[in-house]
Structure formats: C-alpha cells, structure tokens
C-alpha cells in the first residue's frame, strides 16, 4: 500500500495534533522553537496547511499559553482540594505550588510568565493579569476567602500613589467581578484602593521571587532556596497582618 499523500496527511492533521506537537517543541526547546514551519515538519505537512487551524504563529502560541494555564490551574486545584475551608492555607499552598510548577516547567513558565508580551508578540500579559483564566481565578478565589476570614493590615487609600489610582480603580472592578463569579463575593467598600494595591504588590513580590529563582538570578548564591522562599512567604504574611511573632 502506498504511503499517504501530502494532501492526505494535511487532512489528517487535527488541531489536537498541532497543539500536542507545539507543546512538545515548547517543552523540549523553548518558546522560540514553536514555529509553524517546525510543527509542519513534525507532522509531515506543509506550513500553509496549518492556517486552516490558526491564523498565525501568535494565534497558535496564545492557544498554547491557555493550555499551559489550564494545566497549571488543574495541578494547583489538586493541591488545595482538601483545604476548602482554609483560605489562608489555600493561598500559601497556591504560592508554593506555583513555585514548584515554575521550577519543574521552566519552558512553560517562560512562555506564560517571563515576557511582558507572553512571548507571542502581542500584549497578552501574565496569567494573573488575565483574571478570567483558570490560574487567576484560583488565586483570587483563595485571596477572597482570606479577605472574608481575616482583618488585614491595609494601607490607607491616601498612601496609594495618585498616578496609580486610575489603573487600580479599573482593576478593582475586575477583581470584584471575578471574586463574585468565583463564589467569594466581597463588599465593594471592603475592596478599596488600598486593598487592591496590597493584592497587586503581594503578587509582584511572589512572582519576582519565583522568576529570580527559575532563571538563577538571585543576587547571591543561595544554598537553601526553600528556606529563602518560606521566609519570603512569612514576610508577606506579616506585612498584611496574617502572621505575628
């Protein structure tokens, strides 16, 4: 029996085949290796045949990024499945799970978190910035649970830099919507600009620490990175009034 024709192979290619191949290239070689030409070569078809499924490389990478975020969220959800009524424990387990995932999925982390454009050439932003995505929802749902259970030490609104207030106000409305949809509705008067600012800085410190560790960019050699990470989480908890000596 003769081997399938190129046209036949192209028809046989499915979106799942393309994304599976793209994921293999990402894990094996990094985001820069995920090109339509490389995928077509792996599948034994022509690159133009892929345009039946994706308009561009950016379109494909965006789909791949969403797949990675979904997988990350599923892994984190499993971590916290038995902590349903413990918002604080959930939040810090999410932080630890995020770090573990980043250190064991460095190429996926690079695609989703290590570039201001999500490595796709378009302004996609990070997985937390896109609050309606699985990882953002899990993180914010746990944060909302903490807000409902604890009185946090929040900066007053007047210490929020005036230049940031418009951005924070817009983000504040997004947070309220996502928290409500996640079953963690917070009274609008409680989620003021000071608290919104606190949530942003909390994420920035977590993300910055993990990014430094993933890429080996600590300013000094660290022989016990687990201890340093736990100390950072303790500092975060203390700063928002969740931990005291």
TrEMBL record:
Keyword annotations: DNA-binding, Transcription, Transcription regulation
UniProt-listed Pfam families: TetR_C_33 (PF13305), TetR_N (PF00440)
- Which residue ranges run through the membrane? none
Give the superkingdom in one word.
Answer: Bacteria
The entry's DNA-binding region feature spans: 35-54
| Single Gene Ontology MF annotation | transcription cis-regulatory region binding
Classification via InterPro entries: Homeodomain-like_sf, HTH-type_TetR-like_transc_reg, HTH_TetR, MT1864/Rv1816-like_C, Tet_transcr_reg_TetR-rel_C_sf
Q: Where is the HTH tetR-type domain?
A: 12-72
Question: Which Gene3D superfamilies would you find in this protein's record?
Answer: Tetracycline Repressor, domain 2
- Per its record, how is this protein called by name? WHG domain-containing protein
What lineage does the source organism belong to? Answer: Bacteria, Bacillati, Actinomycetota, Actinomycetes, Pseudonocardiales
């Amino acid at each position: 029996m003769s081997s399938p024709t190129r046209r036949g192979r192209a028809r046989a290619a499915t979106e799942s085949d393309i994304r599976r191949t793209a994921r293999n290239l990402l894990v094996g070689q990094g985001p820069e290796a995920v090109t339509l030409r490389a995928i077509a070569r792996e599948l034994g078809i022509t690159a133009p045949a892929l345009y039946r499924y994706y308009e561009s490389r950016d379109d494909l990478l965006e789909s791949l990024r969403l797949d990675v975020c979904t997988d990350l969220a599923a892994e984190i959800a499993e971590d916290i499945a038995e902590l349903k009524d413990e918002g604080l424990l959930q939040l810090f387990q999410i932080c630890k799970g995020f770090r573990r995932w980043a250190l064991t999925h460095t190429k996926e982390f690079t695609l989703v978190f290590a570039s201001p454009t999500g490595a796709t050439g378009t302004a996609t932003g990070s997985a937390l910035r896109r609050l309606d995505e699985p990882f953002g929802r899990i993180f914010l749902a746990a944060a909302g649970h903490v807000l409902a259970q604890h009185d946090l030490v929040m900066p007053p609104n007047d210490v929020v830099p005036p230049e940031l207030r418009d951005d924070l106000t817009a983000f504040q409305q997004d947070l309220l919507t996502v928290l409500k949809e996640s079953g963690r509705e917070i009274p609008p008067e409680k989620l003021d600009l000071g608290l919104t600012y606190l949530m942003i800085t909390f994420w920035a410190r977590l993300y910055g620490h993990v990014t430094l560790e993933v890429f080996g960019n600590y300013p000094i050699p660290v022989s016990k990175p687990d201890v340093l990470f736990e100390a950072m989480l303790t500092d975060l908890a203390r700063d928002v009034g969740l931990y005291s000596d």
